[in-house]
Amino acid sequence: MSESQQLDADRIRTLLESEGDEIKENTRLFNSERYNAVKAVGEGAHEDNRSQAREIKADAIERLPELIDRTRKAVEANGGTVYVADDAEDANRYLAEVADDVDADSVVKSKSMTTEEMDLNEALEADGFDVWETDLGEFVIQVAEEAPSHIVGPSLHKSREEITKLFEEEFDPDESLDSAEKLTAFAREYLGECIDDAEVGVTGANFVLAESGSIALVTNEGNARKCASIPDTHVAVAGIEKIIPSIAELEPFAELISRSATGQDIPQYLSLLTPPVDTPAIDFDSSDEPHFGNGDADRDFHLVLLDNGRREMCEDDDLRETLYCIRCGACANSCANFQSVGGHAFGGETYTGGIATGWEAGIEGNDVAAEFNDLCTGCSRCVNACPVKIDIPWINTVVRDRINRGKDPGFDDVLVDGLVPDEEEPGTSLRKRFFGNFEAVARIGSATAPLSNAVASTGPARKVMESVLGIDARRDLPAFRRTTLREWAASRESRVADPERRVALYPDVYTNYVRAERGKAAVRVLEALDCEVVVPDVGGSGRAPLSQGMIATAEKKAETVAESLLTYVEDGYDVVAVEPSDLAMFRREYEKLLPEAAYERLDGNSYEVLEYAYGLLENGADPDALPAGDGDGVAYHSHCQQRTLGLEGYTEAVLERLGYDVFTSDVECCGMAGSFGYKSEYYDLSIDVGETLADQFEGAADERTVVASGTSCMEQLDSLLSPETRHPVELLDPERQ
Amino acid sequence: MSTGSVEKFQQSLSRLDTASTAVAPDELVSTVADLVEPPAVGAELPFDGLSLADAPVTLDPSPSRLSEAVTGVSGSRMGIASLGTVAVESRAEGDEFIALYPERHVVVVRASDLRTDLSDAFGWLRAEFEEDRQSFILATGPSSTGDMGALVQGVHGPEEVHVIIVRDNE
Ligand code: SF4
User: What are the residue boundaries of the 4Fe-4S ferredoxin-type domain, all occurrences included (chain A) (predicted)?
Assistant: First the structure.
């Protein structure tokens, strides 16, 4: 987002229209190719590579100063030069000096995000050098004077037709460039001459090997090979975080990088270069002399290692992981929001997609991250996609928290007094407090239902909500139940005399106050499978405040919930959750919020309700106690965070076991994502993402019962298809109508 | 170190739209001659007893010969059977240019130099690094791009790759 435009509803709408189609097609292709490639190599082998890669990165970042030192020694021993640049300006100045020293007129570059970060092209051009991007995607962007929309495919928001128009206008070729082949041939020739003429070749480096002073480059086009070998002077530019100890540590990354990026087992070209290389220099001035012109030029190599905020990131416990990133783009491709709007919305000055928040916060500052950070809904689909296992949603949450605290505390505090949890400093905006403390809203709403529902849904009330809280008036609001799940459960006797197991059913805020029917169904199903069920008096898991970046509040809630639930665990109860986003708190985010022992205990003893039912059936519970499916069709949408935990299969298995014919969606997220879809500026995006899911179910919805595990997903499907979406557990309910 | 099989290597190559021919050592020169589309340039092979001296290629070419060449012939001291990958070494003979400029790249690899998979190939690379041979391009199939709106082969590197596998002397 080079123009750093404010991300409002208009901007999002414009991007959805102008770039959405291309972005969707390309990111989804990369995404599905990644899934296929991982499957082909085997989940186990892939997982091993990820663990190894992460360990290597963590270790390398830990001892970065030493590795920088070793790199310098090795490169210098080989005859090259290392320059550690404090910031972009410093690095640009050094590069201009190198170009000046060899009397260069022009510089050719292969793809490098780090030089994008430095705005190297602008700097060199200001110093009078011609600069050519030779990666075709970068070349398109350079000609179009735009910013990259994706870490791996900088121009993937552009259609072939748009590129044809752009190139024909810019270069006025004799023949029309009306196919990808012709465009490629044209660019090959044009850039080929630029490379032959250039005095300096600049490449990035995907990895730097300290021990030998080598760089590794991952490319498909071959331009990096040319930029590194044809000009006599080669400058490789890399962030300091790219250093790993030696060739021995490169292997897992060689396995992972292309598989994660594009689903290739290996890139077309994996260059391992230890410059200055033995390839002779070409002397085009003696074009008829053998031995490549018999020039006597020496090869000259410079490695520029860029800091630009990275050493500070090393010291930052929450941002540090960002430095493990190998820039594969999988977090962007697996992100439903990114698939719709691309990096011109979901990105900062340089970086795009979920991890951009970490990079931009560390390099540019929180202000730049704040421009797009809201687009991460915490759906967590990138977590399993990331080859180095970075907890990308957590980085987004932490930065959101920092942004909240940094904001001017000028908002009207009177209105929200009751909604401000003490732990948050007053910078948190009104809307964040509203959504973050949805539990309080629900409690009051339920106590005064149905009046509260009637008032909230009136025109004037919706107008106020829209203008004060930014809640889009086109969304239906949750209708609060007068009788909560807890009250209902407390008023009835347990039905199981001699239970097989004992369950503490977690009454998440939605199930307790809004979707009580799915909680009741869960109780009856578990009882039918011979479990004693209690519904503890325990509050919100902290998911809502966490999603607003209110970490201190979330932490408090986590402590309270864990304290209460763990007493049940001590008494031999299993914790079962209906809402996957809350279960994901127990099993993922609580690791960050709770002492290790408490987290592990709760993680090990909590289950999603259908996961639990599956376990009961596998261990001898009688499926005949539940109504049979009789071959009825079900269209099932699992929940994003449930899928990240690997739990969607249990729902499918249980439904199939009961005789249902299950069709499962394969979209990454429903687009609603808690409060996200309610926010006015994101309404169109939320609907755009949701439509992909609705399209998948469109044909099926007539003959199939639509079920979804998450509250948000149910709301999105209700609004896009018909208001009859149910939780899968409701199909299992012995009292089902 | 285990060696990968010729059949596996050829299967992998065919998945990459890369043709391959397995020959005996004494058939090498005639095979190269068959596969070369002139004008052709070459880098002398890094193998004892195998040479391009008698093949219809210009070794050690001038810059203009290199630019005009349609075919480039070079050797690879390693192939990866599971992937169809070859190694282009940065040598004074100019392998890197020969393998990069012309539209067609003909690569000569010895059957005994085939490795089973990437992990096996990394074993080889580590050993090479120890011996101070530290610059290789692991090349897999022709160069390609999707940046112009559809997948196209032949960008800055070759559009077509043909691998000659030289069998061991029986
Ligand atoms: S954060 Fe992970 S998934 Fe995202 S670009 Fe970096 S390495 Fe790839």
Answer: 366-395
